[in-house]
Amino acid sequence: MVNEKNVVESRLTGPVRVVGVGLLGTSIALGLRARGVDVILSDASPTNVSIAEDYGAGRRATDGDEPQIVVVCVPPDVTASVIVRELSAYPRAVVTDVASVKKPVLDAVIAAGGDVTRYVGSHPLAGRERGGPMAGRADLFVGRPWVVAGHPAISYQTAAAVDDLILDLGATLVEMTAAEHDASVALVSHVPQVVSSVLAQRLVEAPESAVNLAGQGLRDVTRIAASDPELWVQILGANAEPVVEVLSAFRDDLDRFIGALSAPEVPGARREIAEGLAAGNAGVARIPGKHGLDKRYAQLVVMVDDAPGELARLFAEVGEEGVNLEDLRLEHSPGAPIGLAELSVLPEVSGRLAEALAARGWRIAG
Protein backbone atom coordinates (compact mmCIF):
# COMPACT_ATOMS: atom_id res chain seq x y z
CA MET A 1 0.00 0.00 0.00
CA VAL A 2 1.13 3.58 -0.64
CA ASN A 3 2.11 5.58 2.46
CA GLU A 4 0.40 8.92 1.80
CA LYS A 5 2.89 10.72 4.08
CA ASN A 6 5.79 9.70 1.82
CA VAL A 7 4.14 10.44 -1.53
CA VAL A 8 6.11 12.80 -3.78
CA GLU A 9 3.88 14.96 -5.97
CA SER A 10 3.50 13.74 -9.54
CA ARG A 11 3.77 15.81 -12.71
CA LEU A 12 0.72 13.93 -14.04
CA THR A 13 -2.93 14.60 -13.38
CA GLY A 14 -3.88 10.96 -14.03
CA PRO A 15 -5.33 8.50 -14.09
CA VAL A 16 -2.84 6.33 -16.00
CA ARG A 17 -4.06 3.10 -17.58
CA VAL A 18 -1.45 0.31 -17.79
CA VAL A 19 -2.27 -2.45 -20.26
CA GLY A 20 -0.23 -5.55 -19.56
CA VAL A 21 0.97 -6.07 -15.99
CA GLY A 22 4.12 -8.10 -16.47
CA LEU A 23 7.48 -6.87 -15.20
CA LEU A 24 7.48 -3.51 -17.00
CA GLY A 25 3.79 -2.75 -16.62
CA THR A 26 3.74 -3.56 -12.91
CA SER A 27 6.95 -1.62 -12.31
CA ILE A 28 5.49 1.43 -14.07
CA ALA A 29 2.32 1.11 -12.00
CA LEU A 30 4.21 0.75 -8.71
CA GLY A 31 6.41 3.73 -9.49
CA LEU A 32 3.41 5.91 -10.29
CA ARG A 33 1.48 4.76 -7.23
CA ALA A 34 4.47 5.81 -5.12
CA ARG A 35 3.75 9.33 -6.39
CA GLY A 36 0.04 9.07 -5.64
CA VAL A 37 -1.10 8.63 -9.25
CA ASP A 38 -4.38 6.79 -9.82
CA VAL A 39 -3.36 3.70 -11.84
CA ILE A 40 -5.80 1.51 -13.76
CA LEU A 41 -4.64 -2.07 -14.38
CA SER A 42 -5.59 -4.16 -17.39
CA ASP A 43 -4.30 -7.52 -18.60
CA ALA A 44 -5.52 -10.49 -20.64
CA SER A 45 -4.86 -12.55 -17.50
CA PRO A 46 -7.20 -11.78 -14.58
CA THR A 47 -4.70 -13.52 -12.32
CA ASN A 48 -1.97 -11.07 -13.27
CA VAL A 49 -4.29 -8.16 -12.50
CA SER A 50 -5.13 -9.66 -9.10
CA ILE A 51 -1.46 -10.15 -8.23
CA ALA A 52 -0.51 -6.62 -9.31
CA GLU A 53 -3.48 -5.21 -7.39
CA ASP A 54 -2.47 -7.14 -4.26
CA TYR A 55 1.03 -5.67 -4.55
CA GLY A 56 -0.43 -2.17 -4.51
CA ALA A 57 0.18 -1.41 -8.20
CA GLY A 58 -3.28 0.05 -8.83
CA ARG A 59 -6.93 -0.84 -9.31
CA ARG A 60 -9.12 -2.63 -11.80
CA ALA A 61 -10.77 -0.75 -14.65
CA THR A 62 -14.31 0.65 -14.29
CA ASP A 63 -16.80 1.85 -16.90
CA GLY A 64 -16.28 5.52 -16.11
CA ASP A 65 -12.50 5.62 -16.45
CA GLU A 66 -11.03 8.52 -18.46
CA PRO A 67 -7.24 8.02 -18.41
CA GLN A 68 -4.84 10.83 -19.16
CA ILE A 69 -2.29 8.35 -20.52
CA VAL A 70 -2.46 4.72 -21.63
CA VAL A 71 0.77 2.73 -21.42
CA VAL A 72 0.74 -0.46 -23.52
CA CYS A 73 3.08 -3.13 -22.10
CA VAL A 74 2.20 -6.23 -24.12
CA PRO A 75 4.30 -8.57 -26.32
CA PRO A 76 5.69 -6.99 -29.50
CA ASP A 77 3.56 -9.05 -31.90
CA VAL A 78 0.31 -7.60 -30.50
CA THR A 79 1.53 -4.14 -29.46
CA ALA A 80 0.25 -2.28 -32.52
CA SER A 81 -3.24 -3.83 -32.42
CA VAL A 82 -3.60 -3.04 -28.70
CA ILE A 83 -2.47 0.56 -29.31
CA VAL A 84 -5.13 0.99 -32.01
CA ARG A 85 -7.76 -0.48 -29.69
CA GLU A 86 -6.80 1.83 -26.81
CA LEU A 87 -6.75 4.91 -29.07
CA SER A 88 -10.29 4.10 -30.12
CA ALA A 89 -11.55 3.27 -26.63
CA TYR A 90 -10.11 6.41 -24.98
CA PRO A 91 -10.30 9.31 -27.47
CA ARG A 92 -9.00 11.86 -24.95
CA ALA A 93 -5.95 9.87 -23.84
CA VAL A 94 -2.36 9.97 -25.04
CA VAL A 95 -1.15 6.44 -25.77
CA THR A 96 2.41 5.16 -25.55
CA ASP A 97 4.00 1.72 -25.47
CA VAL A 98 7.21 0.17 -24.14
CA ALA A 99 8.00 -2.29 -26.96
CA SER A 100 11.70 -2.65 -27.73
CA VAL A 101 11.15 -1.95 -31.46
CA LYS A 102 9.55 1.31 -32.54
CA LYS A 103 9.33 1.86 -36.32
CA PRO A 104 7.40 -1.34 -37.19
CA VAL A 105 4.90 -0.53 -34.42
CA LEU A 106 4.41 3.05 -35.65
CA ASP A 107 4.02 1.87 -39.25
CA ALA A 108 1.45 -0.76 -38.21
CA VAL A 109 -0.59 1.75 -36.18
CA ILE A 110 -0.67 4.12 -39.17
CA ALA A 111 -1.63 1.29 -41.53
CA ALA A 112 -4.49 0.30 -39.21
CA GLY A 113 -5.87 3.86 -39.17
CA GLY A 114 -4.92 4.64 -35.58
CA ASP A 115 -4.96 8.28 -34.48
CA VAL A 116 -1.21 8.89 -34.30
CA THR A 117 -1.77 12.51 -33.24
CA ARG A 118 -2.25 10.95 -29.79
CA TYR A 119 0.32 8.15 -30.01
CA VAL A 120 4.06 8.29 -29.40
CA GLY A 121 6.20 5.20 -28.88
CA SER A 122 8.68 4.90 -26.05
CA HIS A 123 11.12 2.33 -24.71
CA PRO A 124 12.65 2.06 -21.24
CA LEU A 125 16.03 0.33 -21.34
CA ALA A 126 15.56 -1.50 -18.07
CA GLY A 127 14.63 -5.00 -17.05
CA ARG A 128 15.36 -8.01 -14.89
CA GLU A 129 15.99 -11.70 -15.50
CA ARG A 130 12.63 -12.45 -13.89
CA GLY A 131 9.26 -11.59 -15.40
CA GLY A 132 5.64 -11.25 -14.31
CA PRO A 133 3.89 -8.92 -11.86
CA MET A 134 5.67 -10.38 -8.82
CA ALA A 135 9.00 -9.19 -10.25
CA GLY A 136 7.81 -5.56 -10.51
CA ARG A 137 9.81 -2.86 -8.73
CA ALA A 138 8.91 0.80 -8.25
CA ASP A 139 12.55 1.82 -8.75
CA LEU A 140 13.23 -0.28 -11.86
CA PHE A 141 13.64 2.76 -14.12
CA VAL A 142 15.59 5.07 -11.82
CA GLY A 143 18.59 6.45 -13.70
CA ARG A 144 17.91 4.29 -16.75
CA PRO A 145 17.55 5.67 -20.30
CA TRP A 146 13.98 5.86 -21.60
CA VAL A 147 13.63 6.70 -25.30
CA VAL A 148 10.72 8.69 -26.70
CA ALA A 149 10.43 8.11 -30.45
CA GLY A 150 8.71 11.24 -31.70
CA HIS A 151 7.20 11.62 -35.16
CA PRO A 152 5.76 14.55 -37.19
CA ALA A 153 2.11 13.77 -36.45
CA ILE A 154 2.30 14.36 -32.71
CA SER A 155 2.85 17.76 -31.10
CA TYR A 156 5.34 18.50 -28.37
CA GLN A 157 2.48 19.62 -26.13
CA THR A 158 0.64 16.30 -26.51
CA ALA A 159 3.79 14.21 -26.01
CA ALA A 160 4.71 16.18 -22.89
CA ALA A 161 2.47 13.94 -20.79
CA VAL A 162 4.65 10.94 -21.72
CA ASP A 163 7.75 12.96 -20.81
CA ASP A 164 6.18 13.68 -17.40
CA LEU A 165 5.48 9.98 -16.86
CA ILE A 166 9.10 9.10 -17.62
CA LEU A 167 10.47 11.79 -15.32
CA ASP A 168 8.06 10.73 -12.56
CA LEU A 169 9.60 7.25 -12.71
CA GLY A 170 13.10 8.63 -12.31
CA ALA A 171 14.30 7.65 -15.78
CA THR A 172 16.53 9.68 -18.10
CA LEU A 173 14.58 10.98 -21.08
CA VAL A 174 16.21 10.40 -24.49
CA GLU A 175 14.66 11.72 -27.71
CA MET A 176 15.18 9.79 -30.98
CA THR A 177 13.29 9.01 -34.13
CA ALA A 178 11.86 5.51 -34.40
CA ALA A 179 14.47 4.54 -37.01
CA GLU A 180 17.34 5.90 -34.90
CA HIS A 181 16.07 3.97 -31.92
CA ASP A 182 15.79 0.67 -33.79
CA ALA A 183 19.29 1.00 -35.26
CA SER A 184 20.68 1.84 -31.82
CA VAL A 185 19.08 -1.06 -29.94
CA ALA A 186 20.14 -3.43 -32.72
CA LEU A 187 23.74 -2.65 -31.78
CA VAL A 188 23.54 -2.36 -27.99
CA SER A 189 20.80 -4.90 -27.18
CA HIS A 190 19.61 -7.17 -29.97
CA VAL A 191 22.95 -8.25 -31.46
CA PRO A 192 24.45 -8.92 -27.99
CA GLN A 193 21.49 -11.26 -27.38
CA VAL A 194 22.22 -13.16 -30.60
CA VAL A 195 25.98 -13.37 -29.96
CA SER A 196 25.42 -14.50 -26.37
CA SER A 197 22.93 -17.19 -27.41
CA VAL A 198 25.04 -18.49 -30.30
CA LEU A 199 28.13 -18.74 -28.08
CA ALA A 200 26.12 -20.48 -25.34
CA GLN A 201 25.12 -23.13 -27.90
CA ARG A 202 28.75 -24.29 -27.84
CA LEU A 203 28.21 -25.38 -24.23
CA VAL A 204 25.43 -27.87 -25.04
CA GLU A 205 27.79 -30.56 -26.33
CA ALA A 206 30.86 -29.43 -24.40
CA PRO A 207 32.51 -31.95 -22.03
CA GLU A 208 31.55 -31.59 -18.38
CA SER A 209 35.22 -31.13 -17.54
CA ALA A 210 35.34 -28.02 -19.75
CA VAL A 211 32.10 -26.51 -18.42
CA ASN A 212 33.36 -26.95 -14.84
CA LEU A 213 36.22 -24.60 -15.66
CA ALA A 214 33.83 -21.75 -16.51
CA GLY A 215 34.81 -18.43 -14.97
CA GLN A 216 33.35 -14.97 -14.82
CA GLY A 217 34.24 -14.19 -18.42
CA LEU A 218 31.97 -16.91 -19.78
CA ARG A 219 29.24 -16.01 -17.30
CA ASP A 220 29.39 -12.35 -18.37
CA VAL A 221 29.15 -13.16 -22.08
CA THR A 222 26.39 -15.77 -21.77
CA ARG A 223 24.23 -14.26 -18.99
CA ILE A 224 21.56 -12.96 -21.35
CA ALA A 225 21.46 -16.25 -23.25
CA ALA A 226 18.98 -17.34 -20.56
CA SER A 227 16.37 -14.91 -21.95
CA ASP A 228 12.93 -15.99 -23.18
CA PRO A 229 13.27 -17.38 -26.74
CA GLU A 230 9.63 -16.67 -27.67
CA LEU A 231 9.94 -12.99 -26.78
CA TRP A 232 13.23 -12.64 -28.63
CA VAL A 233 11.88 -14.27 -31.78
CA GLN A 234 9.31 -11.46 -31.85
CA ILE A 235 11.85 -8.71 -31.13
CA LEU A 236 14.43 -9.91 -33.66
CA GLY A 237 11.80 -10.53 -36.31
CA ALA A 238 10.47 -6.99 -35.92
CA ASN A 239 13.94 -5.41 -36.07
CA ALA A 240 15.54 -7.82 -38.53
CA GLU A 241 17.08 -5.35 -40.99
CA PRO A 242 19.18 -3.31 -38.49
CA VAL A 243 20.18 -6.50 -36.65
CA VAL A 244 21.34 -8.19 -39.87
CA GLU A 245 23.36 -5.09 -40.77
CA VAL A 246 25.25 -5.14 -37.45
CA LEU A 247 25.66 -8.93 -37.48
CA SER A 248 27.09 -8.80 -41.01
CA ALA A 249 29.70 -6.24 -39.96
CA PHE A 250 30.46 -8.35 -36.89
CA ARG A 251 30.87 -11.43 -39.10
CA ASP A 252 33.38 -9.52 -41.27
CA ASP A 253 35.37 -8.52 -38.18
CA LEU A 254 35.29 -12.11 -36.92
CA ASP A 255 36.41 -13.48 -40.29
CA ARG A 256 39.40 -11.14 -40.29
CA PHE A 257 40.29 -12.22 -36.75
CA ILE A 258 39.94 -15.92 -37.66
CA GLY A 259 42.11 -15.41 -40.74
CA ALA A 260 44.88 -13.83 -38.70
CA LEU A 261 44.66 -16.41 -35.93
CA SER A 262 44.69 -19.29 -38.40
CA ALA A 263 48.22 -18.33 -39.49
CA PRO A 264 49.72 -16.30 -36.61
CA GLU A 265 53.27 -16.61 -38.00
CA VAL A 266 52.39 -14.83 -41.24
CA PRO A 267 53.76 -11.26 -41.29
CA GLY A 268 51.12 -8.84 -40.09
CA ALA A 269 48.91 -11.51 -38.47
CA ARG A 270 49.83 -10.71 -34.88
CA ARG A 271 49.35 -7.01 -35.56
CA GLU A 272 45.85 -7.79 -36.90
CA ILE A 273 45.06 -9.73 -33.72
CA ALA A 274 46.45 -6.98 -31.48
CA GLU A 275 44.55 -4.25 -33.29
CA GLY A 276 41.32 -6.24 -33.01
CA LEU A 277 41.79 -6.61 -29.26
CA ALA A 278 42.78 -2.96 -28.88
CA ALA A 279 39.67 -1.88 -30.81
CA GLY A 280 37.67 -3.84 -28.26
CA ASN A 281 39.33 -1.86 -25.47
CA ALA A 282 38.37 1.37 -27.22
CA GLY A 283 34.79 0.21 -27.66
CA VAL A 284 34.40 -0.78 -24.02
CA ALA A 285 35.76 2.61 -22.95
CA ARG A 286 32.79 4.27 -24.68
CA ILE A 287 30.16 2.36 -22.70
CA PRO A 288 28.57 4.80 -20.24
CA GLY A 289 29.45 4.13 -16.64
CA LYS A 290 27.65 5.13 -13.50
CA HIS A 291 25.27 8.10 -13.93
CA GLY A 292 25.75 7.96 -17.68
CA LEU A 293 29.35 9.25 -17.64
CA ASP A 294 32.22 7.84 -19.70
CA LYS A 295 34.51 6.78 -16.87
CA ARG A 296 37.03 4.04 -16.39
CA TYR A 297 37.21 2.64 -12.86
CA ALA A 298 39.87 0.69 -11.04
CA GLN A 299 38.98 -2.88 -10.09
CA LEU A 300 39.78 -4.42 -6.73
CA VAL A 301 39.12 -8.16 -6.29
CA VAL A 302 38.42 -9.25 -2.71
CA MET A 303 38.13 -12.86 -1.52
CA VAL A 304 34.96 -13.32 0.53
CA ASP A 305 34.34 -16.38 2.71
CA ASP A 306 31.16 -18.28 1.84
CA ALA A 307 29.51 -17.52 5.17
CA PRO A 308 26.42 -15.53 6.21
CA GLY A 309 27.01 -11.81 6.60
CA GLU A 310 30.48 -11.66 5.04
CA LEU A 311 29.44 -9.76 1.93
CA ALA A 312 27.43 -7.29 4.00
CA ARG A 313 30.48 -6.79 6.25
CA LEU A 314 32.64 -6.04 3.21
CA PHE A 315 30.20 -3.41 1.95
CA ALA A 316 29.94 -1.83 5.38
CA GLU A 317 33.71 -1.60 5.79
CA VAL A 318 34.16 -0.09 2.32
CA GLY A 319 31.66 2.54 3.39
CA GLU A 320 33.49 3.12 6.68
CA GLU A 321 36.60 3.91 4.63
CA GLY A 322 34.64 6.64 2.86
CA VAL A 323 34.78 4.94 -0.55
CA ASN A 324 31.83 4.78 -2.94
CA LEU A 325 31.31 1.57 -4.94
CA GLU A 326 30.80 2.47 -8.60
CA ASP A 327 30.03 -1.09 -9.70
CA LEU A 328 30.17 -4.65 -8.40
CA ARG A 329 30.55 -8.13 -9.86
CA LEU A 330 30.39 -11.37 -7.90
CA GLU A 331 31.87 -14.74 -8.83
CA HIS A 332 31.22 -17.90 -6.87
CA SER A 333 31.86 -21.37 -8.23
CA PRO A 334 29.59 -24.14 -6.85
CA GLY A 335 31.21 -25.91 -3.92
CA ALA A 336 33.96 -23.33 -3.47
CA PRO A 337 34.47 -22.07 0.12
CA ILE A 338 35.03 -18.49 -1.08
CA GLY A 339 33.65 -16.05 -3.59
CA LEU A 340 35.30 -13.18 -5.41
CA ALA A 341 33.88 -9.68 -5.20
CA GLU A 342 35.20 -7.37 -7.92
CA LEU A 343 34.78 -3.82 -6.65
CA SER A 344 34.92 -0.93 -9.12
CA VAL A 345 36.09 2.30 -7.53
CA LEU A 346 37.64 5.57 -8.64
CA PRO A 347 41.31 5.03 -9.53
CA GLU A 348 42.53 7.63 -7.02
CA VAL A 349 41.09 5.67 -4.05
CA SER A 350 41.87 2.09 -5.13
CA GLY A 351 45.32 1.89 -3.53
CA ARG A 352 44.15 3.36 -0.25
CA LEU A 353 41.13 1.04 -0.15
CA ALA A 354 43.26 -2.05 -0.88
CA GLU A 355 45.57 -1.20 2.03
CA ALA A 356 42.67 -0.46 4.37
CA LEU A 357 40.83 -3.71 3.57
CA ALA A 358 44.02 -5.75 3.91
CA ALA A 359 44.57 -4.16 7.34
CA ARG A 360 41.05 -5.24 8.26
CA GLY A 361 41.89 -8.83 7.39
CA TRP A 362 40.46 -9.10 3.87
CA ARG A 363 42.42 -11.07 1.30
CA ILE A 364 43.01 -9.08 -1.89
CA ALA A 365 43.12 -11.27 -5.00
CA GLY A 366 43.84 -8.56 -7.53
UniProtKB/TrEMBL annotation:
Domain Prephenate/arogenate dehydrogenase residues, every copy: 14-291
Protein keywords: Amino-acid biosynthesis, Aromatic amino acid biosynthesis, Oxidoreductase
The keyword Amino-acid biosynthesis belongs to this UniProt entry's keyword annotation: yes
Organism field: Herbiconiux moechotypicola
Pathways per UniProt: Amino-acid biosynthesis
Protein name: Prephenate dehydrogenase
Pfam families: PDH_C, PDH_N
InterPro entries: 6-PGluconate_DH-like_C_sf, ACT-like_dom_sf, NAD(P)-bd_dom_sf, PDH_C, PDH_N, Preph/Arog_dehydrog, Prephen_DH
Homology family: Belongs to the prephenate/arogenate dehydrogenase family.
Record bears the keyword Amino-acid biosynthesis: yes
